[in-house]
Amino acid sequence: MKWIGGLLLGVVLFVVMLVPLLIQGAQSLNDSPNPLTGSLDAASIPQEYRDYVIAAGNVCADVPAAAIAAQIEHESGWNPRAVSPVGAQGIAQFMPGTWATYGRDVDKNGKASPFDPADAIDAQARFMCALTRFVQPFVAASGRPAIELAWAAYNAGPARITQYAGIPPFTETQNYVAKLRESMAAFLADSVPVSGSWAPPLAKQHMIPTSPFGPRGSPCAGCSSNHQGQDFGAPSGATIYAACDGIVDFAGQMSGYGNITFVNCGNGIRTGYAHQSAIRVQVGQKVEAGDGIGAVGSTGVGTGAHLHFEVRTGAPAGGGGLSGTPTDPRPFMAKRGVTW
């Protein structure tokens, strides 16, 4: 909680404005949009903390379990004994003063401790839910989800949210929010429908088509004016899925494409997935349609986080590189039961 060492004014305003919200209890604010949707990928949570995180995600609708996991990952790396240079303690990095308000003995072992994961993760959920209630008046005006404003309040102090009526223009705070948003995506397990041996490369909520296949005005310096794939406006960190059954024949970096993976689907067909923030397969690995193979990012040349999806046909056996002829993915996938 880096804001603890900030202005005394921020602390005073926080206490004055938060007390009425504590009295309201933990009711959810269902009209506040979350930055990402989808179910928790429980397997991505360390097993010893999994039940605590799942329970914490049920405290209020604005703070889902994936948001809890993302913040723990960033703050302590799941270390229950962590102590920061400024004195924040435990897996959820509570300062003693804040712990005095939110700490309770959840596992009934006789002591409420920030070093007890059961106690700390429960307290984190209730604290973040209180912050989402605090920032609620600024959701509509700022256009940002309550959870993002709450992350900003956690980092910079609630008074700064009031001052700027949204996320303050501090590089550290803006980077903090962006990092947690990306990390949250990694803890979501979105399922994709499989049609035979084919599937969409992204979960339904991320299949937002932007730049299509074919000639176009170059959208940025270095961007192609003859687009060889289909772009989707998915958020950084969202899971990328194999669109076909096949074997990975390329996984690495390419000029312009950044981090890219190609899956050889057989019969001279290859599917490509560019600009990834993380590649999660390796060359020679067998995959099935719908398997998670990477994460959306903004590596290479582009205008921001998105998935560039390619289909190539007529590739030689073994594929590799950019072998095969680029084909418009939309009609190709539609014939195989995948539409957008």
From TrEMBL:
UniProt keywords, alphabetically: Plasmid, Signal
MF terms in GO: metalloendopeptidase activity
Coiled coil: none
One Pfam family matching this protein: SLT
The Transglycosylase SLT domain, residue ranges: 63-175
Domain M23ase beta-sheet core, first and last residues per copy: 226-314
Gene3D superfamilies named in the record: 1.10.530.10, Glucose Permease (Domain IIA)
Domain of life: Bacteria
Protein name: Peptidoglycan DD-metalloendopeptidase family protein
Source lineage: Bacteria, Bacillati, Actinomycetota, Actinomycetes, Micrococcales
